[in-house]
Amino acid sequence: MFSNVTAEISDEILKLFIGGLSFETTDDSLREHCEKWGTLTDCVVMRDPQTKRSRGFGFVTYSCVEEVDAAMCARPHKVDGRVVEPKRAVSREDSIKPGAHLTVKKIFVGGIKEDPEEYNLRDYFEKYGKIETIEVMEDRQSGKKRGFAFVTFDDHDTVDKIVQKYHTINGHNCEVKKALSKQEMQSAGSQRGRGGGSGNFMGRGGNFGGGGNFGRGGNFGGRGGYGGGGGGSRGSYGGGDGGYNGFGGDGGNCGGGPGYSSRGGYGGGGPGYGNQGG
Length: 278
Hints:
This is RRM domain-containing protein. By secondary structure, the chain is of the alpha+beta class. It has helices spanning 2-13, 27-34, 65-73, 118-125, 156-162, 182-194, and strands spanning 15-19, 40-47, 54-62, 77-79, 82-88, 106-110, 131-138, 145-153, 167-169, 172-178, 180-181, 226-227.
């Protein structure tokens, strides 16, 4: 059982979802392009089972993480004359959570207790990518640190890498996941409610909803407060004035549990990924 789980996790880390493919792109032409950055163990353009028409997206699996990183560093990619949108695949367990497939540049870091300072977080996370801002949240009255923070990067792929792993900062097992605005949480929730678009990135046999095509540009507005205290859409931090509401209570407690649940606790079904080609 454990070995099977380990095998699945390692396979997902090596896999890229490729959106926005031309309908003319084949397994062979996608492979030819992606092999420039490493050895592929699998390559597939997803097709309608009845018509065999391309669904506008596919998956490639590399032989090691370094090759995945190299391919992502080489963005933008153009396959068969069309600019495509690669993203790191999302595991089956993470794909059902709100916001799993949203493209964001900010992470929520919970369970850091009171001692870490901004420089501790910077020292830890800058190895993953360029940091734009760090917000260590404090009580507005007492100035006491509230045990969570937000870190914003210059690239969504940095966030996708980070949430694949467990993180221990200053000896604390931390909860690290995508920071979602209230709008993004509501969007993710409504997508799930409609039943279309839980949008697995998992690969063969995954469920791809027809609504909400894989958008270019990716980032949602999200100027409001950021959600993410355990427990789905509850526990949003902040309102119109940018302040942060109480952490814990309604939002759940991000205390020092054994890492964060489900390998990154992304938050779950994002928009569906329909036909991209044309």
